[in-house]
Amino acid sequence: MHDEVIDSLKKEFIEKLNKIKDNPSLLALKGEFVGRKRGKINELFKQMGKIPAEKRKIFGQAINELKSFFEQELKQFERNLKIGSLSQKEEDWTLPGYKIDIGSKHLLLQVMDEVIDIFLKMGYHIEDGPEVETDYYNFTALNIPEEHPARDEHDTFYIDYEDRDNRYLLRTHTSPVQIRTMLKKKPPLKIIIPGKVFRKDEPDDTHSPVFHQLEGLVVGKKISMADLKGTLTTFLKALFKEDVQVRFRPSFFPFTEPSAEVDVMMNGEWLEILGCGMVDPAVFENVGIDSEEYTGFAFGLGIDRIAMVKYKARSLRLFYENDLRFLRQF
Ligand code: PHE
Fold it and tell me: Is the pLDDT of residue 207 over 80?
């Protein structure tokens, strides 16, 4: 009868020990079987008094043996846990792994990269500027004074914060970075400025309140309109591989003189994709560059519109709706 008690306890112990995976559960098992207070071994010792005297010695010996068996097993187990052999043994390397969703570059960024690549090959380098701009860099320094009608076309989102000298807004074009760069670096300059711009435009097939531009600026000696036209023609050929119809058209920007725009034929209509011109001498004066010595040209490309033409997307809104059925095609 007492042997049975001992045997079933041993069986129970081994079963439980085999399920142990970490230190806390090992500690709990220790407490349960060899704990000083309520350990099962101690409970057995407490029952000794109820056993007839002649059997007491044998029973006592059996309990002691069981106790040292438990202790040894526990010690061995603890050692295995420590050296990690247990956790390795328990790992099942044949289980299927986690599935990782692989994202891809958004179409607009793919087009932006492609455009950047063409200009890098032509020897331009990249400049960067803030999306939250001051009134000064976004307008005034670009020869667009307060009350100038050109500001109407560039209505934007004003930040609810002003300090003594500045009113803050979300930039309406990448042109302010022309100013920032010319204040920092001396000509000759040959730079591109990729970035996000913002306007208070109603969203429709060709407008979005957030869109992307790539600005270009070249400043040097004897830079002419012919350089501008040659550069943009080379760029457009590289980008569209000559399979679209393109036209240059005179235009107006306060910071370039003369100015032009480039349109591309899409679905029987001309779509404007860039503005450009020779840097206005007034802009050079604002940044302390001698306009008698230096000339330059600038351009601003609409990346979203270029993407529309290149990938024949009927609306630029598709780029912002995050519909995977559209995005997955690219
Ligand atoms: N900044 C102009 C716009 O966003 C584009 C432009 C850039 C025009 C550089 C001329 C020169 O409309």
Answer: yes
